[in-house]
């Protein structure tokens, strides 16, 4: 084990956390919007517009069908346009956000569909507006499932950062490739794998804890 191991790991970890945090925020915003539109626009939905839902659903499936490494390459010009460069953690956030949004949108769609139709109908009968139903019925009722879905999405983004490292995004993935693989540093390769596994476990445990706390509070209430 060489003296620079911990310094390199720390730098790579900070870059990975930076990418994961910001990408999760942007993907969450876009994903929630996509998921809500898919649910409310479907036939029989509170804002029925099947054509809109079909167009968005087709676009989502198209993006999800692309391997992430190809999606990153396709989005390089967009990254350069938005942040002024196609290299580094900041540039990778663009591709990570767009790549994770459709995945998260489908998760949110499925979570919202778990809400009882009876509760939605009851809200309609009381004269609730579509926005009220979305923010007072759909999202609160589906919150535990949404938290679990978001946890899965954040873990996926964490894994995506390792792939993004292959084209200069930085982070633990780049560290593993540039030092662990190309320079035959087995200590770095093994250490980055361990750190990524631990990071994923922490994210999963945190998400599960939040979801359980929400359910416990609901039952006590």
TrEMBL record:
Q: Does the keyword RNA-binding apply?
A: no
- PROSITE patterns linked to this entry: ABC_TM1
InterPro entries cross-referenced by the UniProt entry: AA_ABC_Transporter_Permease, MetI-like, MetI-like_sf
Q: Is rRNA processing a UniProt keyword of this protein?
A: no
Any one GO cellular component localisation term in the record: plasma membrane
Q: Where in the cell is it found?
A: Cell membrane
User: Topologically, how does it sit relative to the membrane?
Assistant: Multi-pass membrane protein
Q: What is its main location?
A: membrane
- All residue ranges annotated as the ABC transmembrane type-1 domain in the record: 13-207
A GO biological process held by the record: D-methionine transmembrane transport
User: Where are the membrane-spanning stretches?
Assistant: 20-40, 52-76, 82-104, 125-146, 152-176, 188-207
Q: Which family does it belong to?
A: Belongs to the binding-protein-dependent transport system permease family. CysTW subfamily.
The entry's protein name is D-methionine transport system permease protein
Taxonomic source organism: Paenibacillus algorifonticola
